[in-house]
Amino acid sequence: MKKTVYLLALSALLLGGCSESDDSTMIASAADQTNDIPGYYDGYVLSPQVTDDRLLQETGQNKRDAKGEATVKAVNMDSETYKVGPVELIVAESKILQLEPDYSLIDFFHSYTHEQEFEVMKMFVEITNTSDEPIHFAPVALLETAEEELKLWEDDIYLEELNGELAPGETKTGNVGFIIEKGGIESINITTSDVFDSKDKQIAKAVEFNTQFE
Predict the structure, then answer these.
(1) Which is more confidently placed, 57 or 25?
(2) Taking a C-beta distance cutoff of 8 angstroms, is the pair 60, 73 a contact?
(3) Which of 95, 106, 199, 184 is CA-nearest to residue 145?
(4) What ranges make up the beta strands (E) of 5-134?
(5) What one-character-per-residue DSSP string does 85-105 give?
(6) Worst-scoring range by mean pLDDT, 18-27, 116-125, 144-153?
(7) Which InterPro entries does UniProt cross-reference here (predicted)?
(8) Any idea which fold 2-212 has?
(9) Are 157 and 49 in contact (CB under 8 A)?
(10) Sign of torsion, CA 181 184 185 190?
């Protein structure tokens, strides 16, 4: 029942209707020397709120920049592809990050948590409208941890405008991320939104999938 309510709320948003460059001030970590930035990040504009984690691809790797510090607690670098009606959803990577934001960003994160350090489950996704008609879709409507902690689409800290309309043939890429407070990071269940056409008609039901972490 809860899932139904959450999905209906997201559906209403979908039917209704800036990122900045990363600061140059950075402290290099071992990850900078051993990993390459994955190709699916080509053209990606870094989040103005969250430490750049593109080089962090293994558990234990760490990076500090002007936005704070990020440490990988768990990771799944295996790409998975899902079909949601006319939408092709690619989850390129999934990570659990321990974040310690810079003091200058405390006010932003206080709208999500009052902790100074916290864990974030984040995914880099690509969504494509394979049809010749505009549609409305969100890659994550509901997230549930192994400890049954629930997060909704509105809890996303990346704010990269992946929810909403996709024009015919359009592809969007970016991060979605949610603060996890109760642990239970061994696996995460994700439920997408339903897919709607331009006349508010449901044309595909949501898909649920599970991401396992090392």
Answers:
(1) 57
(2) no
(3) 184
(4) 26-27, 62-65, 68-76, 80-84, 87-101, 118-129
(5) TTEEEEEEEEEEEEEEE-GGG
(6) 18-27
(7) Immunoprotect_excell_Ig-like
(8) Immunoglobulin-like (2.60.40)
(9) yes
(10) negative
- Residue 18 CA to residue 45 CA, distance in Å, equals 9
The contacts of residue 68 (CB under 8 Å, 6+ apart) are: 51, 99, 100, 101, 102, 105
CA dist., res. 207 & res. 214, Å (int): 23
Q: 92: which residues sit within 8 A by CB, 6+ positions away? A: 38, 40, 79, 123, 124, 125, 126
What is the rounded CA–CA span in Å between residue 50 and residue 69? 9
Residue type, 182: K
Q: Which residues contact 37 (CB under 8 A, 6 or more apart)?
A: 54, 55
- Could you tell me which residues are beta bridge partners of residue 134? none
Query: Tell me, what's the pLDDT at 206?
Result: 98
Comparing CA positions, the residue from 147, 48, 28, 154 lying closest to residue 104 is 48
pLDDT in tens, 91-148: 999 999 999 999 999 999 999 999 999 999 999 999 999 999 999 999 999 999 988 9
* pTM summary value: 0.86
Amino acid (one-letter) located at 131: S
